[in-house]
Amino acid sequence: MVRKTVLSNGIRIVTEKMPGVHSVSMGIWVNVGSRDEEPHEQGVTHFIEHMLFKGTAQRSALDIAMALDAVGGFANAFTSKENLCLHAKVLDSHLDLVVDVLTDIFLHSLFADEDIEKERQVVVQEINMIEDSPEDLAHILFQQHFWRAHPLGAPIYGTQESVMALDRSKILNFLSRRFAPRAVLVAAAGNVDHEAFVDLVAPHVASLNHSRHAPHRQPPQVFCHRTLLPKDLEQVHICLGFPGCSQADPERFACHVVNVVLGNSMSSRLFQEVREKRGLAYSIYSFVNSHEDTGLMGVYAAVSPENVAETLDVITAEMDAVRRDAITASELDAAKEYLKGSMYLNAESTDARMNRLAKNEFVFGRHVPLEEVEKAIDAVTVDDVRAWFVKHYQPENTAVTLLGPVENTADDMAAA
Prior knowledge:
Blueprint: E1 2-6, E2 12-17, E3 23-30, H1 44-51, H2 61-69, E4 74-79, E5 84-91, H3 95-108, H4 113-131, H5 134-146, H6 160-165, H7 168-178, E6 184-190, H8 194-205, E7 226-230, E8 236-243, H9 252-262, H10 269-277, E9 281-290, E10 295-303, H11 308-325, H12 329-346, H13 350-364, H14 370-378, H15 382-392, E11 399-404, H16 410-415
Parallel strand pairs: 2-6, 7-11
Antiparallel strand pairs: 1-2, 3-5, 3-6, 4-5, 8-10, 8-11, 9-10
């Protein structure tokens, strides 16, 4: 059962009771992410995520870690382009402890200057680590060019320069502007009683009362590009894409079906043709990135420099085939079962259910039952899939990024 309470200051509390489990996953969410940052404060949301574990007036960083370790719990946080989430999972008997700890660090973190200086170096190392991961870097650089000059294209963690420029005043200014009560949601899933959870949470968060309204998010413009990014690597990392679906797009289920058929499973067309039949790549897949008001669908592959042209030809041929001939009825049925199976298996996790509660509330303003999603998936037809793909995939407007030893691949890029 899903229950929702809205406090007088606008903070939402949403819970889902899951019979038969002994744990509770709790998250404090803010509908703010890297797309909400100004150019001079890039990376500040992610930096705040790091700083939330560095101590409050009541607890040191060690106290915070020990409090949850002592009861076998787990706490972490993440930042996306549209959300920040501080979350934990404990046995239901320790829910009062996790509420006390998470609300304390969310509301009373010190953001001490000395901690900011130390954590700045940690975040810089994180940026360097991503620079050493070419697959991750290829996706990030592709999006920078795909959504050029828009905050959605900026890396979530910022740049070394922007992180080095952050200070306590910039952090607190961003918090006061963006972390308003109406952007905050507290979610819990597992063996949790709604009224009891509200009684635990409300006294802590009721004092949050600054009520600035966040500026309306502006959708980005898409830039078709052909970008060569030389880097001393063994492989060329290919990332290409085109406009996809937003999180609330009524046609999003057709998008996800074609993603499974094209490259999001081991039986997919791209995996079978590029890896199994031709042996061109170890890693090849398609993906969908969806946001509040926009999205992209793309393909990633890592190949030897001499195989770039053939790989691009195969990817293009497979996408042209979907656009021209659609998918088969058997592919449609298999993709539907894949999507429904993944959804229901994921739903057995309290963490996943807690995440789903928050995202549905932010995107739709309500709980979306799994059965409603299943029905929407089942309603997708072959014609729906083809119509969606024809509408969104235009070969001449596909963006492509090549990262690695690309000095001799200009002709391959021109043909893509």
